[in-house]
């Protein structure tokens, strides 16, 4: 069963109590894996290089390709598990998630442009076969660290949320903006994987829930631009190693970044499911 909650911005805190069982379970898994002295082989990345090491994920295939580590969806999922359900709204299937849609207030999220490209691969195939025809629901906070539908001031917005169906290469692509850094969490985004587009828009049968982390050097560069002032202060007191979610391993969730703050960035990640 997928975990459903993590901590959020201070104004909407309360996720830590939900996180503790999840974090304890994942740390126990890593201890058990270490005791076995049998490393799991990671999957081929976007750049074609392979990774090895102990996986934080509880599931792996007989071919030795571990699924993406399971993470909490947080308290602001918008999938019906904690209040509002955006997945059943007409218009949620889209690639450009910078604007609100439907009966929302119609706002647009501002910030450094970010293209998000996730490549789904079948873990059972040793990460050799693309996972086509699956679906990804992706969401993250805005430049100010606020989550649409939940945070004060943007409860009538639903931007930075969307669903895409994976193509023949297993890819989904979203046009977004670089998220801000709020107190207590390393810059990240959330995503849920569903077996089909129909499952996603019915908000049922989630197969994987995880998070993507952003590299520090890119965060530093982006946060030096206009509008990210609070993120500079918040990031200065954080590290990936101390983050409540990524502290037990983040290599398989750290995005490969290309681009610039002026022209926009692309964040790519291979997601074994």
Q: Strand fraction band? A: 15-25%
Number of helices: 4
Order of strands, widest sheet? 6-3-10-9
Helical content class: 10-25%
- Average pLDDT score: 84
Shape: globular
* Poorly predicted ranges: 1-5, 10-63
Return the string of H and E elements: HEEEEEEEHEHHEE
Amino- and carboxy-terminal Cα gap? 15 Å
Largest sheet: 4 strands, mixed
Category by helix and strand content: alpha+beta
Provide an overview of this structure.
The chain is of the alpha+beta class. Helices cover 15% and strands 22% of the residues. The protein has 4 helices and 10 strands. It has helices at 16-36, 197-201, 216-223, 229-235, and strands at 40-41, 52-53, 113-121, 135-139, 161-165, 171-177, 188-194, 206-213, 256-260, 264-272. Strands 6-3-10-9 form a 4-stranded mixed sheet, covered by helices on one side. A 4-stranded antiparallel sheet has the order 5-4-7-8. The longest helix has 21 residues, at 16-36. The model is unreliable at 1-5 and 10-63 (pLDDT under 50).
